[in-house]
Design goal:
- It is found in: Cell membrane.
- The protein has about 475 residues and is an all-alpha fold.
- The chain folds into two domains: about 25-180, no CATH class; about 190-485, no CATH class.
- Helix content is about 75%, strand content about 0%.
- The chain has helices at about 5-20, 25-40, 45-65, 70-105, 125-140, 150-160, 170-180, 185-220, 225-260, 275-280, 285-300, 305-325, 330-345, 350-360, 360-385, 390-395, 400-410, 425-445, 450, 455-475.
- α3 (about 45-65) crosses α4 and α8 (about 185-220) packs antiparallel against α9.
Length: about 475
């Protein structure tokens, strides 16, 4: 198992106290040891996977920088990429590929004798693999010098606050910070702790309570009413946002306390006016990774029309992005739908711009936001469903929502939610979603989170204690693992 939210709260202050107690020259060793222990708490032997890729990429980076010819540089880069993608292929995609080979073979009456592998997926494998690949890719492009300090490079890959679920960093942003001497700064520490508190609130109070409901629906679809299913579709949107952004807040906050700045990963994604804008606001470190290392090279390599090249690159990028999330066709379907949506937006951009000038700007923006949110919720059905069959079953049940609402408004006798679903928790979820969106609106318009730091101590601590009291009384009875740990 891996640290849950409460165990992390015990681990983090111990490491941080030792960090400020030790002289600067020993701090990287402390953080590297803490990161190794943090990762080994899940499955100790899997540290060898990280060790393998770290050694390969460390020496590959130096060899790429010192290469005399472009051919040598590409050769060393290829070794690095094969090592990293190979680890992903074996641990994350081997069984998926093997199962599909078996399915295709059975169509022709053949048997697949390749055995399946029984093994756990290493925590956060996709995250630290992509971060490691960005290092050698940036060196090969001449954007960064190879890191000669092996321990510092290992820390870049393994830095424990963001090791298992990002954000996915670039060497330009993080590596130099591990060389810099960090001093205790009260205001910075408070900022970091405030960010962690908000992250904990989103995870423990909102995400985990929503998870109890959505799991109850998606794991027992055939006994649910259409109303319960539709509510679960919308609840999952806020669940995954609060869960994933909570981890990012905790990671960035923990790093900031010690003086390290990690990149921002979310920017009010539910305010997006189109799907392209959504991906500029959601999981931004992954979006920019795919844009820089996959989308742009595919577009540049295209020898046909520019429009075809961009559409082709969008479909390839989003299909692989979906597969990045998980070894299942449901994730591929999720990615393909976003590929079609962004392609449509690219091809119709001029027409939509003309339309926006003919409609009231406020109405156009609000309608665009609602339609974007509905589309994203629709695609997340495939993201959350256990199988493709379950996803299509959910889609089939959606029209029944309106019939059940109409019937219930007349008779009010048949229960609209399955008896196993917590009614009071359902109300809490609705209230907390409303609270979340209200705070997001106020922060986006008045920058309330930053202004809070300048308020008097009574107001500040009243807010902090209120959040902590709510966490104590309204925390989910079941602690759920962060969703993105499985990726």
């Amino acid at each position: 198992m891996l640290f849950n939210s409460f165990e992390f709260l015990l681990y983090f202050p111990i490491v941080t106290a030792l960090f400020f107690f030790l002289p600067h020259r020993f701090r990287w060793q402390l953080l590297l040891a803490a990161s190794c222990f943090f990762y080994m708490f899940f499955k100790p032997e899997y540290i060898l996977i990280l060790a393998f890729t770290i050694v390969v990429d460390y020496y590959a980076g130096i060899l790429i920088e010192e290469a005399k010819t472009a051919k040598q540089k590409k050769y060393y880069l290829l070794i690095s990429l094969i090592a990293n993608i190979g680890v992903l292929a074996v641990f994350k995609y081997y069984n998926f590929i093997n199962e599909n080979i078996t399915g295709v073979a059975s169509l022709f009456g053949w048997k697949n004798h390749i055995p399946a592998l029984t093994m756990l997926l290493p925590i956060g494998l996709s995250f630290h693999t992509f971060q490691a690949m960005s290092y050698t890719l940036e060196i090969s492009r001449g954007n960064y010098k190879a890191e000669r300090h092996f321990g510092i490079y290992a820390l870049y890959v393994m830095f424990y606050p963001q090791l298992v679920a990002g954000p996915i960093e670039r060497p330009q942003n993080v590596l130099h910070q591990f060389h810099e001497k960090k001093s205790f700064d009260y205001s910075r520490v408070v900022d970091g702790l405030r960010m962690m508190l908000w992250g904990m609130f989103k995870k423990i109070v909102i995400a985990d309570n929503l998870t109890t409901y959505t799991d109850g629906v998606y794991n027992n679809l055939h006994v649910q009413t259409s109303i319960a299913i539709v509510v679960a579709i919308f609840f999952f949107a806020f669940q995954i946002y609060c869960d994933f952004s909570a981890y990012t807040d905790i990671a960035r906050g923990a790093a900031r306390v010690m003086g390290y700045e990690l990149v921002k990963n979310f920017n009010y994604p539910f305010r997006s006016r189109n799907v392209t804008d959504f991906w500029r606001r959601w999981h931004m470190s992954l979006t920019t990774w795919f844009n820089d290392y996959l989308f742009t090279p595919v577009v540049i390599s295209n020898r046909g029309s520019i429009k075809f090249g961009i559409v082709f690159a969008l479909m390839v990028t989003f299909s692989l992005s979906g597969l990045w999330h998980g070894a299942a066709w449901t994730y591929v379907g999720f990615g393909v739908m976003h590929g079609f949506a962004t392609s449509y937006e690219f091809l119709t951009k001029k027409w939509r711009n003309r339309l926006s000038k003919k409609v009231n700007p406020f109405i156009y923006s609000r309608v665009s936001q609602v339609l974007t949110f509905l589309f994203v919720c629709y695609t997340w059905i495939f993201f959350r469903a256990n199988t493709m069959a379950d996803a299509f079953y959910v889609l089939k049940r959606i029209p029944g929502f309106f019939t059940e609402i109409a019937n219930w408004s007349v008779t009010r006798t048949k229960p609209i939610f399955d008896g196993s679903l917590p009614k009071l928790g359902l109300i809490y979820c609705g209230v907390f979603i409303l609270l979340l969106e209200t705070l997001h609106y106020l922060d986006n318009k008045y920058d309330v989170f930053n202004k809070l730091r300048n308020q008097n101590i009574v107001l500040r601590w009243s807010v902090y204690y209120s959040l902590m009291i709510i966490m104590i009384f309204f925390a989910s009875s079941t602690a759920h693992r962060f969703i993105y740990f499985q990726f």
